[in-house]
């Protein structure tokens, strides 16, 4: 769910995306920004000129899933075979 900020009293979408720092390229980030913006335009009829998307990259060791660091979670849940 997007968080909204205001611009002259009008709510504007602000979306914060957090991803692990694993080499997402500038092109991939641009695609995320464009896709999120397009979705907000399509679903909520938002103005793309006032839609803000921020991507935060988090070090892998600073991210956890299921009560363990991400690298441990991935080791435990790696497909066998």
For the sheet with most strands, the description reads: 3 strands, mixed
Our estimate of the beta-strand percent is 25-35%
Order of helices and strands: EEHEEEH
Low-confidence stretches: none
> Can you count the helices?
2
* Class per helix and strand makeup: alpha+beta
Distance between the termini: 38 Å
Rg over CA atoms: 16 Å
Total strands: the figure is 5
The helicity comes to 25-40%
Strand order of the largest sheet: 1-2-3
Shape: elongated
Mean pLDDT over all positions: 90
Explain this structure.
It contains two helices and five strands; from the N terminus they run ββαβββα. By secondary structure, it is α+β, with helices and mostly antiparallel strands. The strands form two sheets. It has a three-stranded mixed β-sheet, covered by helices on one side. It is elongated and about 50 Å long. The relative contact order is 0.19.
Can you give me a brief rundown of this structure?
The chain has helices at residues 26-44, 70-76; strands spanning 3-7, 10-20, 52-58, 64-65, 68-69. With 81 residues, it is of the alpha+beta class.
Secondary structure elements and their pairing?
Elements: E1 3-7, E2 10-20, H1 26-44, E3 52-58, E4 64-65, E5 68-69, H2 70-76
Parallel strand pairs: 2-3
Antiparallel strand pairs: 1-2, 4-5
List its salient traits:
81 residues; three-stranded mixed β-sheet; 5 strands
């Amino acid at each position: 769910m997007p968080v909204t900020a205001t611009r002259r009293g009008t709510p504007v979408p602000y979306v914060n995306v957090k991803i692990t720092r694993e080499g997402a390229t500038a092109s991939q980030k641009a695609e995320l920004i464009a896709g999120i913006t397009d979705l907000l335009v399509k679903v909520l009829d938002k103005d793309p000129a006032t839609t803000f998307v921020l991507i935060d990259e988090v070090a892998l060791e600073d991210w956890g899933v299921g009560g363990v660091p991400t690298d441990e979670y991935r080791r435990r849940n790696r497909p066998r075979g």
